[in-house]
Protein backbone atom coordinates (compact mmCIF):
# COMPACT_ATOMS: atom_id res chain seq x y z
CA UNK A 1 0.00 0.00 0.00
CA UNK A 2 1.20 3.50 -0.85
CA UNK A 3 -0.20 6.48 1.01
CA UNK A 4 0.22 10.05 -0.21
CA UNK A 5 0.18 12.62 2.60
CA UNK A 6 -0.34 16.24 1.58
CA UNK A 7 1.27 18.72 3.94
CA UNK A 8 3.31 15.63 4.63
CA UNK A 9 6.26 17.19 6.42
CA UNK A 10 4.07 18.99 8.95
CA UNK A 11 3.60 17.87 12.54
CA UNK A 12 0.85 15.30 11.95
CA UNK A 13 2.05 14.22 8.51
CA UNK A 14 5.58 13.42 9.63
CA UNK A 15 4.36 11.39 12.61
CA UNK A 16 1.84 9.51 10.46
CA UNK A 17 4.56 8.79 7.89
CA UNK A 18 6.77 7.37 10.64
CA UNK A 19 4.02 4.96 11.68
CA UNK A 20 3.25 3.92 8.09
CA UNK A 21 6.91 3.25 7.36
CA UNK A 22 7.17 1.16 10.54
CA UNK A 23 4.39 -1.03 9.09
CA UNK A 24 6.47 -1.62 5.96
CA UNK A 25 4.35 0.60 3.71
CA UNK A 26 5.37 3.13 1.08
CA UNK A 27 4.78 6.84 1.73
CA UNK A 28 4.76 9.88 -0.56
CA UNK A 29 5.06 13.18 1.29
CA UNK A 30 3.64 15.99 -0.84
CA UNK A 31 4.50 19.45 0.46
CA UNK A 32 4.87 22.97 -0.91
CA UNK A 33 7.89 23.63 1.33
CA UNK A 34 9.23 20.35 2.75
CA UNK A 35 10.56 20.71 6.31
CA UNK A 36 13.65 18.54 6.03
CA UNK A 37 14.56 19.06 9.70
CA UNK A 38 11.32 17.29 10.67
CA UNK A 39 11.75 14.25 8.42
CA UNK A 40 15.51 13.70 8.13
CA UNK A 41 15.31 10.68 10.46
CA UNK A 42 12.58 9.22 8.24
CA UNK A 43 14.82 9.27 5.17
CA UNK A 44 17.16 6.86 6.95
CA UNK A 45 14.40 4.64 8.32
CA UNK A 46 12.28 4.66 5.17
CA UNK A 47 14.94 4.26 2.51
CA UNK A 48 13.39 3.85 -0.92
CA UNK A 49 9.92 3.44 0.60
CA UNK A 50 9.81 7.17 1.34
CA UNK A 51 9.44 9.76 -1.42
CA UNK A 52 9.22 13.52 -0.88
CA UNK A 53 7.54 15.54 -3.62
CA UNK A 54 7.52 19.33 -3.69
CA UNK A 55 4.09 20.36 -4.91
CA UNK A 56 1.11 22.66 -4.47
CA UNK A 57 -2.43 21.42 -3.81
CA UNK A 58 -3.81 24.47 -5.63
CA UNK A 59 -2.39 22.95 -8.84
CA UNK A 60 -4.51 19.93 -9.80
CA UNK A 61 -1.92 18.69 -12.29
CA UNK A 62 0.76 18.53 -9.60
CA UNK A 63 -1.44 16.53 -7.24
CA UNK A 64 -2.51 14.18 -10.04
CA UNK A 65 1.09 13.65 -11.16
CA UNK A 66 2.06 12.69 -7.60
CA UNK A 67 -0.87 10.27 -7.40
CA UNK A 68 -0.16 8.57 -10.71
CA UNK A 69 3.61 8.64 -10.39
CA UNK A 70 3.60 7.06 -6.95
CA UNK A 71 1.04 4.30 -7.48
CA UNK A 72 -1.01 5.82 -4.65
CA UNK A 73 -3.88 3.84 -3.13
CA UNK A 74 -4.84 6.26 -0.33
CA UNK A 75 -4.48 9.98 0.40
CA UNK A 76 -4.38 11.72 3.77
CA UNK A 77 -4.97 15.41 3.11
CA UNK A 78 -3.29 17.67 5.69
CA UNK A 79 -2.28 20.71 3.59
CA UNK A 80 -4.23 23.70 4.86
CA UNK A 81 -3.82 27.34 5.77
CA UNK A 82 -4.49 27.31 9.52
CA UNK A 83 -6.69 29.42 11.78
CA UNK A 84 -5.27 32.89 12.39
CA UNK A 85 -3.57 32.99 9.00
CA UNK A 86 -6.93 32.19 7.39
CA UNK A 87 -8.32 35.35 8.98
CA UNK A 88 -5.36 37.41 7.76
CA UNK A 89 -5.23 35.91 4.26
CA UNK A 90 -8.77 34.80 3.35
CA UNK A 91 -8.11 34.61 -0.39
CA UNK A 92 -5.13 32.29 0.14
CA UNK A 93 -7.07 30.25 2.68
CA UNK A 94 -9.92 29.82 0.21
CA UNK A 95 -7.59 28.65 -2.55
CA UNK A 96 -5.65 26.22 -0.36
CA UNK A 97 -8.36 24.94 1.96
CA UNK A 98 -11.29 24.79 -0.44
CA UNK A 99 -9.81 24.50 -3.93
CA UNK A 100 -6.92 22.40 -2.63
CA UNK A 101 -9.32 19.89 -1.06
CA UNK A 102 -11.34 19.76 -4.28
CA UNK A 103 -8.12 19.02 -6.19
CA UNK A 104 -7.19 16.21 -3.83
CA UNK A 105 -10.60 14.59 -4.22
CA UNK A 106 -10.58 15.10 -7.99
CA UNK A 107 -7.07 13.66 -8.29
CA UNK A 108 -8.24 10.66 -6.29
CA UNK A 109 -11.19 10.19 -8.65
CA UNK A 110 -9.09 10.54 -11.80
CA UNK A 111 -6.18 8.52 -10.41
CA UNK A 112 -8.18 5.57 -9.14
CA UNK A 113 -7.36 6.15 -5.47
CA UNK A 114 -9.52 4.05 -3.17
CA UNK A 115 -9.63 6.20 -0.04
CA UNK A 116 -9.22 9.86 0.95
CA UNK A 117 -8.96 11.08 4.53
CA UNK A 118 -9.48 14.76 5.31
CA UNK A 119 -8.52 16.82 8.35
CA UNK A 120 -11.52 18.78 9.57
CA UNK A 121 -11.37 20.55 12.95
CA UNK A 122 -13.23 21.28 16.15
CA UNK A 123 -13.49 24.77 14.64
CA UNK A 124 -16.70 23.50 13.00
CA UNK A 125 -18.35 23.73 16.45
CA UNK A 126 -19.12 26.82 18.46
CA UNK A 127 -17.77 27.61 21.92
CA UNK A 128 -19.00 25.54 24.87
CA UNK A 129 -21.32 28.32 26.00
CA UNK A 130 -23.31 28.20 22.77
CA UNK A 131 -24.67 24.76 23.65
CA UNK A 132 -27.17 23.58 26.23
CA UNK A 133 -25.64 21.72 29.21
CA UNK A 134 -27.18 18.44 28.08
CA UNK A 135 -25.39 18.75 24.70
CA UNK A 136 -21.97 18.68 26.38
CA UNK A 137 -19.55 17.08 25.86
CA UNK A 138 -20.04 17.63 22.14
CA UNK A 139 -20.48 14.62 19.90
CA UNK A 140 -20.31 14.61 16.12
CA UNK A 141 -24.04 15.26 15.75
CA UNK A 142 -23.93 18.59 17.62
CA UNK A 143 -24.90 21.71 15.65
CA UNK A 144 -22.01 23.23 13.69
CA UNK A 145 -21.97 26.90 14.68
CA UNK A 146 -18.29 27.49 13.66
CA UNK A 147 -15.74 28.94 16.12
CA UNK A 148 -16.36 32.69 16.32
CA UNK A 149 -12.66 33.60 16.12
CA UNK A 150 -11.96 31.35 13.12
CA UNK A 151 -14.83 31.99 10.68
CA UNK A 152 -12.90 31.40 7.44
CA UNK A 153 -11.09 28.32 8.69
CA UNK A 154 -14.08 26.77 10.48
CA UNK A 155 -16.56 27.42 7.68
CA UNK A 156 -14.07 25.95 5.20
CA UNK A 157 -13.94 22.77 7.25
CA UNK A 158 -17.73 22.48 7.19
CA UNK A 159 -17.61 22.86 3.41
CA UNK A 160 -14.91 20.25 2.90
CA UNK A 161 -16.89 17.74 4.96
CA UNK A 162 -19.84 18.20 2.60
CA UNK A 163 -17.53 18.09 -0.42
CA UNK A 164 -16.05 14.80 0.77
CA UNK A 165 -19.51 13.32 1.32
CA UNK A 166 -20.49 14.39 -2.20
CA UNK A 167 -17.48 12.68 -3.79
CA UNK A 168 -18.25 9.54 -1.80
CA UNK A 169 -21.89 9.48 -2.87
CA UNK A 170 -21.36 10.46 -6.52
CA UNK A 171 -18.08 8.71 -7.36
CA UNK A 172 -17.85 5.88 -4.85
CA UNK A 173 -14.72 7.10 -3.07
CA UNK A 174 -14.22 6.09 0.54
CA UNK A 175 -13.98 9.46 2.28
CA UNK A 176 -13.61 10.00 6.02
CA UNK A 177 -11.71 12.24 8.42
CA UNK A 178 -11.06 13.63 11.87
CA UNK A 179 -12.09 16.75 13.74
CA UNK A 180 -8.94 17.27 15.82
CA UNK A 181 -8.81 19.22 19.03
CA UNK A 182 -5.73 21.45 19.43
CA UNK A 183 -2.85 19.16 18.43
CA UNK A 184 0.43 19.48 20.30
CA UNK A 185 3.80 17.83 19.83
CA UNK A 186 7.46 18.57 19.19
CA UNK A 187 8.19 21.06 16.42
CA UNK A 188 4.75 22.62 15.99
CA UNK A 189 5.27 25.96 14.23
CA UNK A 190 1.83 27.10 13.11
CA UNK A 191 -1.82 26.94 14.07
CA UNK A 192 -3.82 27.27 17.26
CA UNK A 193 -1.51 24.90 19.10
CA UNK A 194 1.74 26.73 18.33
CA UNK A 195 1.68 28.30 21.81
CA UNK A 196 1.52 24.86 23.48
CA UNK A 197 4.30 23.39 21.38
CA UNK A 198 6.54 26.40 21.87
CA UNK A 199 6.26 26.53 25.63
CA UNK A 200 6.96 22.77 25.97
CA UNK A 201 9.85 22.86 23.49
CA UNK A 202 11.39 25.85 25.26
CA UNK A 203 10.96 24.31 28.71
CA UNK A 204 12.58 21.08 27.53
CA UNK A 205 15.53 23.06 26.18
CA UNK A 206 15.89 25.11 29.38
CA UNK A 207 14.79 28.31 27.65
CA UNK A 208 12.27 30.86 29.01
CA UNK A 209 8.79 31.01 27.51
CA UNK A 210 5.81 33.35 27.65
CA UNK A 211 2.19 32.42 26.98
CA UNK A 212 -0.96 34.56 27.02
CA UNK A 213 -4.66 33.82 27.68
CA UNK A 214 -3.78 31.91 30.85
CA UNK A 215 -7.41 31.55 31.98
CA UNK A 216 -8.65 30.24 28.64
CA UNK A 217 -9.81 26.63 28.50
CA UNK A 218 -8.54 24.40 25.69
CA UNK A 219 -8.90 20.81 24.50
CA UNK A 220 -5.49 19.28 23.75
CA UNK A 221 -4.63 16.06 21.92
CA UNK A 222 -1.14 14.64 21.45
CA UNK A 223 0.06 14.21 17.87
CA UNK A 224 0.74 10.46 18.22
CA UNK A 225 -2.89 9.84 19.14
CA UNK A 226 -4.04 11.74 16.05
CA UNK A 227 -1.64 9.75 13.84
CA UNK A 228 -2.99 6.48 15.28
CA UNK A 229 -6.55 7.65 14.65
CA UNK A 230 -5.72 8.37 11.02
CA UNK A 231 -4.20 4.88 10.77
CA UNK A 232 -7.46 3.44 12.06
CA UNK A 233 -9.38 5.36 9.39
CA UNK A 234 -6.99 4.11 6.71
CA UNK A 235 -7.59 0.47 7.60
CA UNK A 236 -11.27 0.47 8.60
CA UNK A 237 -13.75 -1.28 6.27
CA UNK A 238 -15.64 1.30 4.19
CA UNK A 239 -18.92 0.14 5.73
CA UNK A 240 -17.80 1.64 9.04
CA UNK A 241 -18.38 5.11 7.54
CA UNK A 242 -22.00 4.48 6.60
CA UNK A 243 -23.30 6.30 9.68
CA UNK A 244 -20.67 9.06 9.93
CA UNK A 245 -17.51 10.06 8.12
CA UNK A 246 -15.93 12.59 10.48
CA UNK A 247 -14.93 11.82 14.05
CA UNK A 248 -13.79 13.90 17.01
CA UNK A 249 -10.29 13.09 18.15
CA UNK A 250 -11.21 14.04 21.69
CA UNK A 251 -8.70 15.67 24.00
CA UNK A 252 -7.78 16.64 27.54
CA UNK A 253 -9.53 19.81 28.69
CA UNK A 254 -7.63 22.28 30.87
CA UNK A 255 -6.86 25.96 31.23
CA UNK A 256 -3.62 27.27 29.81
CA UNK A 257 -2.46 27.88 33.40
CA UNK A 258 -3.10 24.23 34.20
CA UNK A 259 -1.10 23.27 31.12
CA UNK A 260 1.80 25.41 32.34
CA UNK A 261 1.55 23.93 35.83
CA UNK A 262 1.78 20.42 34.33
CA UNK A 263 4.88 21.39 32.34
CA UNK A 264 6.46 22.83 35.48
CA UNK A 265 5.87 19.56 37.32
CA UNK A 266 7.58 17.62 34.54
CA UNK A 267 10.39 20.16 34.05
CA UNK A 268 11.31 21.50 37.49
CA UNK A 269 12.66 25.00 37.23
CA UNK A 270 10.96 25.71 33.89
CA UNK A 271 10.75 29.48 33.35
CA UNK A 272 7.29 30.15 31.92
CA UNK A 273 5.49 33.47 32.25
CA UNK A 274 1.70 33.39 32.01
CA UNK A 275 -0.47 36.43 31.27
CA UNK A 276 -4.23 36.71 30.83
CA UNK A 277 -6.90 39.17 29.82
CA UNK A 278 -9.63 36.86 31.09
CA UNK A 279 -10.24 35.04 27.80
CA UNK A 280 -12.64 32.09 28.30
CA UNK A 281 -11.28 30.11 25.37
CA UNK A 282 -8.95 30.30 22.37
CA UNK A 283 -10.66 31.81 19.30
CA UNK A 284 -14.05 30.43 20.35
CA UNK A 285 -12.93 26.81 20.07
CA UNK A 286 -14.94 24.20 21.95
CA UNK A 287 -13.22 22.49 24.88
CA UNK A 288 -15.69 19.82 26.00
CA UNK A 289 -15.78 17.14 23.31
CA UNK A 290 -16.15 13.38 23.28
CA UNK A 291 -14.41 10.77 21.15
CA UNK A 292 -16.83 7.99 22.12
CA UNK A 293 -17.90 7.48 18.49
CA UNK A 294 -14.32 6.84 17.39
CA UNK A 295 -13.89 4.24 20.11
CA UNK A 296 -17.28 2.61 19.54
CA UNK A 297 -17.18 2.48 15.74
CA UNK A 298 -13.47 1.98 15.05
CA UNK A 299 -12.18 0.57 18.34
CA UNK A 300 -9.42 3.17 18.78
CA UNK A 301 -8.68 4.87 22.09
CA UNK A 302 -6.23 7.65 22.88
CA UNK A 303 -3.07 6.41 24.60
CA UNK A 304 -1.49 9.75 25.57
CA UNK A 305 -4.03 10.74 28.20
CA UNK A 306 -4.25 12.22 30.81
CA UNK A 307 -2.48 15.38 29.77
CA UNK A 308 0.81 14.72 31.59
CA UNK A 309 1.25 11.47 29.64
CA UNK A 310 1.29 13.35 26.37
CA UNK A 311 3.40 16.18 27.76
CA UNK A 312 5.97 13.71 29.02
CA UNK A 313 6.22 12.16 25.54
CA UNK A 314 6.50 15.65 24.01
CA UNK A 315 9.32 16.63 26.37
CA UNK A 316 11.22 13.41 25.72
CA UNK A 317 10.90 13.92 21.97
CA UNK A 318 12.07 17.53 22.23
CA UNK A 319 15.15 16.47 24.15
CA UNK A 320 15.97 13.65 21.72
CA UNK A 321 15.65 15.99 18.76
CA UNK A 322 17.83 18.67 20.33
CA UNK A 323 15.27 21.03 21.83
CA UNK A 324 13.00 23.35 19.89
CA UNK A 325 12.57 23.34 16.13
CA UNK A 326 15.05 25.40 14.09
Notes on the structure:
- The two termini are 33 Å apart.
- This protein has one domain: NAD(P)-binding Rossmann-like Domain (Rossmann fold, 3-Layer(aba) Sandwich), CATH 3.40.50.720.
- Strands 3-2-1-4-5-6-10 form a 7-stranded parallel β-sheet, sandwiched between helices.
- The protein is built from 11 helices and 12 strands.
- With 326 residues, the chain is an alpha/beta fold.
Which CATH first-tier class would you pick?
Alpha Beta
The CATH homologous superfamily: NAD(P)-binding Rossmann-like Domain
What is the overall number of helices?
11
CATH topology name, in short, is: Rossmann fold
Global geometry: globular
Radius of gyration: 19 Å
Summarize the helix and strand pattern as letters: EHEHEHEHHEHEEHEEHEEHEHH
Strand count? 12
Question: Biggest sheet, in brief?
Answer: 7 strands, parallel
Distance between the termini: 33 Å
Q: Percent of residues in beta strands?
A: 15-25%
* Average pLDDT rating: 95
State the CATH architecture. Answer: 3-Layer(aba) Sandwich
Task: Enumerate the spans where pLDDT stays under 50 for 5 or more consecutive residues.
Answer: none
Amino acid sequence: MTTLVTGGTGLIGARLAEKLLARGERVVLFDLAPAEWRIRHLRVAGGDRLHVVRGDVTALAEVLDAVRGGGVSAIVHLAYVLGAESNDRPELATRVNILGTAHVLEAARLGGVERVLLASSIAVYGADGEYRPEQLPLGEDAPLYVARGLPIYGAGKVYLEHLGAHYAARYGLTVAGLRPSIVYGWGRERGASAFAGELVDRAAAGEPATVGFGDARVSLVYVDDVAEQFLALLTAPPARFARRRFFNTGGDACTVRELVDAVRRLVPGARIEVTSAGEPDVAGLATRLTDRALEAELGVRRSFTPLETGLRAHIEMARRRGGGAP
